[in-house]
Specification:
Helix content is 41%, strand content 9%. The protein has 375 residues and is of the alpha/beta class. Strands 1-10-9-8-7-6 form a 6-stranded parallel sheet. Strands 2-5 form a two-stranded parallel sheet. Helix 5 packs across helix 7 and helix 7 packs across helix 9. The chain is globular.
């Protein structure tokens, strides 16, 4: 296996080992060159573009009544894979829209495995109820390999890896360690009170919810690398090395002081372990902490998620995006097709990765042509 580093200088060396030869994505190598240039804050012929919006996969549900519960549908490994494969060859996969399947049991998967507790399943997401009610409950938080969710995740990954060769990429699942994991297991409101009443308890919980994270991620990556798969997850931005999506959604509810003392040290420990890191900056509340986040050397990029409603329109966030650019970080920007031209007219393309919710193939081709002229 080649060294798993970052940067264009070793791109071709890694490609020798990880040439997937995807039938569905004949321009895969060209696209990966753009991705690696973007990781370095550079541009080849154009900026990368993915033709889907953030969380677009959760905009609709798929239920035909053949399951007795929503959990059965989520656990139906063959159905989940078949649903993905059914659209595989009809999808155009233009730009940096990669054919990628990632097994998914919802954002509280990691928390449920650590507490060995039940997940509640909805149509498009899942969650767990609080499990830490007193300090003694912390001892219950550790990696439970016998967890039905962990065993199901391994089954889903193995099933996908057995089907994927020369057709699509397989990713690892959504992982939320540290403070966000504590919020799931302690309850957000209770945790926020703990920060004032018992900060030592918070530190103990965060540490317990961090310890199994890197070993579990290493195991997922070993499974992928054994099948010559890249490192990729729900954001669909791959790495020949290891790619991680650090986050702290609870940051929207806590002060800069608490964020810097409790969350930031663990974010730094997370990113030190991986080749590429794209911080998931979820809304203007978490954006209060951007100054500290963009100082972390191991974070190559920020995924800016501006939110919904009045926060959705992208032009109001141009100064904020420019601030991230000015700090030397690349940025993932989500916008509507009708916003594209106005955005291009006021922005420098350096380090920009666009997610555009355009379904029409003809319009996608026009957008790619326009981006080739964006200088």
């Amino acid at each position: 296996m080649p060294p798993l580093g970052g940067g264009m200088e070793i791109f071709m060396e890694e490609l020798k080992f990880y040439d997937l030869e995807l039938e569905t994505k004949p321009d895969f190598v060209e696209c990966m060159k753009r991705i690696y240039a973007w990781y370095d804050g550079e541009i080849l012929d154009r900026v990368p573009v993915r033709f889907s919006a953030h969380n677009e996969e959760y905009d609709s549900s798929d239920a035909d009544g053949k399951w007795n519960s929503l959990k059965e549908r989520w656990f139906d490994t063959e159905y989940q894979m078949g649903h993905f494969v059914s659209n595989l060859y009809s999808h155009p996969w233009l730009g940096e829209t990669f054919p990628m399947y990632f097994p998914n049991l919802g954002p509280n998967f990691f928390a449920a495995v650590l507490a060995n507790c039940e997940l509640e399943f909805g149509e498009v997401t899942s969650w767990c109820e609080p499990q830490i009610f007193e300090e003694g409950d912390i001892d219950k938080i550790y990696f439970h390999p016998e967890s039905e969710y962990y065993q199901k995740m391994i089954e889903m990954m193995n099933y996908a890896l057995a089907c994927c060769e020369h057709k699509f990429m397989v990713g690892y699942t959504d992982m939320h360690p540290s403070l966000d994991c504590v919020a799931a297991l302690r309850g957000t409101q209770t945790l926020c009170m703990d920060m004032y009443d018992d900060p030592e308890l918070v530190e103990k919980m965060v540490q317990k919810c961090f310890e199994p994270f890197l070993p579990m991620m290493d195991h997922f990556h070993e499974m992928l690398k054994e099948r010559k798969q890249l490192s990729v997850s729900w954001m669909n931005i791959p790495s020949y090395g290891t790619m991680h999506i650090p986050s702290c959604d609870l940051g929207a509810m806590i002060s800069k002081e608490f964020f810097n003392e409790i969350s930031l040290p663990y974010v730094k420990r997370e990113v030190e372990h991986f080749t590429h890191n794209i911080f998931h900056l979820d809304g203007k509340g978490v954006a209060n902490h951007v100054d500290e986040i963009i100082r972390i050397d191991g974070i190559q990029a920020i995924q800016w998620v501006q939110g919904v409603g009045l926060d959705k329109k992208i032009m109001q966030w141009v100064p904020f995006i420019k601030k991230i650019q000015g700090a030397g970080k690349s940025v993932v920007v989500d916008l509507a097709p009708e916003e594209l031209e106005g955005f291009l007219n006021v922005m420098d393309p350096q380090g920009i990765y666009l997610c555009v919710s355009e379904k029409d193939v003809g319009q996608q081709k026009k957008i790619i042509d326009r981006l080739l002229r964006w200088k």
